[in-house]
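User: Before I run my own analysis I want an independent prediction to cross-check against. Here's the chain; please return only the structure tokens and, at the end, one sentence I can use as a sanity check.
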Amino acid sequence: MKLCLWIILLLLLPLNMAAQENTPSAQRKLYVLETIEHNGEVTPHIKLPTVQIFAPLQFKNNRQRKEYNKLVRDVKKTLPLAAEIRKIIIETYELLQMMPDEKARKKHLKKLEEGLKEQYTPKMKKLTLRQGKLLIKLVDRECNQSAYQLVKLFIGSFKAAFYNSFASLFGASLKKEYDPDGEDWMIERVVIQVLNGQL
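Assistant: Structure tokens:
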């Protein structure tokens, strides 16, 4: 076993040296690997991420295939937005904890709300109704709270109720929760595959 490893290393060494000679020293990369010792042998130890493998989908007709392709497109468009929202919520929560009083918090939240409207209104206008509904679910997935709960927590129950009423005019609800084991199983499958780079 040891002999085999040494032979492979010796064969690869000239290739590695040739590659390094053509690379300027500033651009060389150094990789440090963890090692494990087992029965007196030291071997590299590489942690690989867990990857879920799904059985290929079987579509009954072309319409189902088109719906699936739309879902993939919509997830790819809305998942980054949901991740941004999660990041903003975490940063805002941490910042609010450091503020001295309620007046400073309210002032910051008002300023933040105006800034978010200015920054995200053009992006949100480009979303279809279907993508908007999906975004509401993905926000719940990313934050473990519905969009309604988040708005209520940061901006207040009056505005949460107002925004939810506005969403209901279009057949959506900010109270909609994500159910990966129930009705949203296909969305969860697509999200996992997108995150793993499989789609």
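Sanity check: Residues 1-7, 13-21 have pLDDT under 50 and may be disordered.
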